[in-house]
Give the backbone structure.
Amino acid sequence: AMATSTFKYVVLGGGNAAGYAARAFAAEDGAPPGSVCMVSREEVLPYERPALSKAFLFADPPARLPGFHTSVGGGGDRQDAAWYESKGIAVKLGTEVTAVDVAAKKLTTATGDTVVATDALILATGCEAIKLARTPGADLKGIHTLREYADGLELYDGLKTCAGKKVVVVGGGYIGMEVAAAAVLMNCDVTMLFPESSVMPRLFTPEIAAHYESAYKAKGVKLLNDGRLCEAFLDDGSGAVKGVMFCKDHVKDEVDGQLVVVGVGARPNVGLFKEQGLKTAEGGLVVDGSMATSAAGVYAVGDIAAFPLLLDGGALTRSEHVAHARASAAQAVAAALGKCPAPYDYTPFFYSRVFGLSWKFYGFNRGTSVTVGDFAPTLATVWIDGGKAVGVFMESPSDEQTAVMQTMARAQPAVELGALQKLVPSKDAAAL
Ligand code: FDA
Ligand code: NAD
């Protein structure tokens, strides 16, 4: 029978942001037991999603739940089933929400049940992986994307069977770089295929990319990039993938792989809100400095939120990163609880870890970049825009250096590029 349940606070989604929303609701000055409900399509409680492309794949033994439930990455309790129960937070797992009425703050699930929020509805549906669904052969067995826990388990099992065998990673961004590194550590023979001239093109300068690419090449990874586009996935005759056809300058070629990982970006899960009259921008839902959407009592957090980035003059920005998922969830909960928090003031932060390398970036990668050092022992790149240092990248920064990076990204100190270029050889000052 269909059921209706009513809570003061409802969280739609059970990912990184939802886990941190639960943490904030459960805090001493949070919401009373019994007043919060979380509804998630995933079969598992919220966890630190970044683990899926890191320790989940290659650590020995590999990380598995309940080891990395939120909020372990943010220094909080490990929120397992007993935790949710003890905090009086209701959780509906394996529950797909198929309709949302934002005016009524009401969710309808695939089974026809409804969940209504009386005070606040927090939308935290995150992103889905882009699947290259229109590329011929996209349905073949052995083609993976990586977003949720179940994807991770399938990918791990697939890579396990590929030790000594060929694997193709399509995409040169975060998933591409991290999964390629994991596949190498699982003894696969890895080729990366992506169209740009170097890895992580959204962030890395060519000289930064060159250093990481040399680490990949040293591990035997082959790069097929620079204009090469994935045109088709090839069938081995039994419905399983046996490789990828690609094209450059109208010339076709093929690369073998009995497993293919597609990491070509993510798309915000906002389909449910399309007809609801919410303001949208940047592919997400527009929110204010409290993460409130244009509908009363409805908040959006994490990957789907297009929020005013104060450090960038209030420009509406989406951030598909975990630090923002954590902080925006805490902000929305504070606002939902009537605490009137100061406007959200996020500092863009990106990081990754591959092959024992570990980089961090704070701020904006715009303007002109100046690089100091050569990875031996380390390297720092600073981006200068409008006479100010606006972004800073470092490989393997210490805690002390990380603090300097954070301070610099917040303060945006004035830097005279001409003076700097006199100090640093000009080959290292590359116009972007
Ligand atoms: P998230 O995707 O975590 O959660 C969304 C939730 O909503 C999911 O549980 C989903 O099932 C649920 N949902 C969606 N639609 C639904 C519906 N209709 N009904 C019910 N439930 C629904 N970031 C970073 O800063 N550093 C890193 O190292 C990494 N590494 C990394 C690795 C991998 C493999 C991925 C996929 C992503 C990262 N990220 C990252 C990005 C980071 O994980 C991401 O920004 C956060 O998970 C965003 O949190 P959200 O809660 O917004 O979405
Ligand atoms: P991404 O945007 O980082 O990288 C996408 C890459 O796909 C591009 O760099 C490009 O090389 C490639 N690409 C695009 N279209 C292509 C095509 N048609 N054929 C071949 N290559 C193509 O996205 P992602 O790596 O898929 O990551 C997905 C999500 O997961 C993002 O939200 C990301 O922030 C998140 N994530 C973050 C981290 C991290 O922060 N360390 C790690 C893993 C995943």
Summary: The first strand starts at residue 4 and ends at 12. The two ends are 60 Å apart (CA to CA). Residues 53, 127, 170-176, 178, 194-196, 201, 229-230, 263-266, 320-321, 350, 352 surround nicotinamide-adenine-dinucleotide (ligand 2) (CB under 6 Å). Confidence is low (pLDDT under 50) at residues 428-432.
